[in-house]
Amino acid sequence: RAAITQYGLRSHLTQQLLQYIFTADLLIPYDSQQIASIFLSALRSATAGSAGVDVETAVDVTLLTTGVYLLDSTVKGPLGGGLCALLLGRSSTSRQGIFVIPGVIDADYTGVIKIMVYTLTPPVSIPKGSRIAQLIPFRPCVPQPGDKERGDGGFGSTGSPQVYFTMDISKTKPELTVTMIEKGGDRKVIKMMLDTGADVTVISASQWPQHWPVTNAYTGIFGIGGVQMTK
């Protein structure tokens, strides 16, 4: 169905697939390579010796911020022949101030291939049909593949749902009331400022109860004021 939609009922690719489905012909490795080459033949590489094929954008877009944008390409999976592909940016794209975040296109992905891009110097306009990315095909070597089919799902569709703390951004400091409980049952309620870039919890020494135990830490906290030793 995907082959008919993308290439037409009378295309060479569709005719080959129908032949293998409704006849007793064997599909040998050479045939798989031929089918894969037909899928990829719709894409064009920059030179005869290029390792990949170029991918065009399907829409006009203007990058107004430094955030990540998700752009539709003109290519739809699967690539065929059990092939996967690396989605990388072209070197000329980076020189224009447009950066493509690398991605992996799975062999069983059937949706539209999307390109993740960002810029450090907005605004930047990307016209429809711009060849900003390329597909580097490869054959997967996973020893024990799973039973689940990806289909047209992407960007975390096979992972478990996750919930993260969110709050509205305003001019006031983002604060949260925290209750600390010591092993003996003693409690201390303090109001702390949230920092989305922090990977540890930092509590001021003035807010730590003096009768609670502490141990010296061998790492410091790096900030604007320099390095501060911690406990």
Automatic annotation (TrEMBL):
Keywords: Aspartyl protease, Hydrolase, Protease
Source organism (scientific name): Penelope pileata
Any one GO molecular-function label of the UniProt entry: aspartic-type endopeptidase activity
Biological-process GO terms, alphabetical: proteolysis; viral process
PANTHER family (alphabetical): GAG RETROVIRAL POLYPROTEIN, RT1 CLASS I, LOCUS CE15
Keyword Acetylation part of the UniProt annotation: no
Domain of life: Eukaryota
A matching Pfam family: Gag_p24
Domain Peptidase A2: 190-231
SUPFAM superfamilies: Acid proteases, dUTPase-like
Classification via InterPro entries: Aspartic_peptidase_AS, dUTPase-like, dUTPase-like_sf, dUTPase_trimeric, HERV-K_Pro_peptidase_A2, Peptidase_A2_cat, Peptidase_aspartic_dom_sf, Retropepsins
Protein name as annotated: POK9 protein
